[in-house]
Amino acid sequence: MSDSRTPEEGSAESDDGPQRPPRYEQVIWWAEYIKTQPPQVWGPQQNAVVNGHIESAQAVDVSAEEKKRVREFADETLRAEGEPDEENNSEE
Questions:
Q1: d(CA 27, CA 37)
Q2: φ, ψ for residue 43, nearest 5 deg
Q3: Are the C-beta atoms of 13 and 7 separated by less than 8 Å?
Q4: What integer pLDDT is reported at residue 57 of this predicted model?
Q5: CA–CA separation, 18 vs 14, rounded Å?
Q6: What span, in angstroms and rounded, lies between the C-alpha atoms of 79 and 81?
Q7: Most CB atoms closer than 10 Å: which of 8, 34, 57, 69?
Q8: How confident is the model over 3-28, as a mean pLDDT?
Q9: Rounded to a whole number, what is the distance in angstroms from the first to the last CA of the chain?
Q10: What is the per-residue pLDDT across 32-90, written as a single tens digit (0 to 9) for each?
Q11: The pTM of the whole model exceeds 0.70
């Protein structure tokens, strides 16, 4: 399943051009940062970002149908990556 917001490889909008979009530079910067800083420094920073995203998502009024669609997509993605999804994540 492809994300309609993600350009197809080789298309005019794809990221294989000579200049990468700024978000990739930010990802590279963060990867280098966490290599040089202890988890006690970058861990709380990362938690703050993730918590902010969760709070923003919770503030959006989403229908039960949309929540189900998102959950199904997440479960499908986890299965494709070989990780247990929420329904199959019971401890025996």
A1: 15
A2: -60, -55
A3: yes
A4: 83
A5: 11
A6: 5
A7: 34
A8: 64
A9: 31
A10: 999 999 999 999 999 999 999 989 888 888 888 988 998 999 999 989 888 776 555 54
A11: no
Distance (Å, whole) CA 57 – CA 6: 21
C-alpha to C-alpha distance for 28 and 56, rounded to whole angstroms: 25
- Distance, in Å, from the CA atom of 15 to the CA atom of 60, rounded to the nearest integer, reads 30
How many Å apart are CA 43 and CA 59, to the nearest integer?
24
Q: Look at the block and give the residue holding tokens 């530079």.
A: 25
- The tokens for 23 are 């978000």
Asked whether residue 4 carries a pLDDT value surpassing 80, the answer given is no
| DSSP one-letter string for the chain | ---TTSPPTTSTTSS-SSS--HHHHHHHHHHHHHHHS-HHHHHHHHHHHHHHHHHHHHHS---HHHHHHHHHHHHHHHHHTT---STT----
Rounded Cα distance between 30 and 1, Å, is: 28
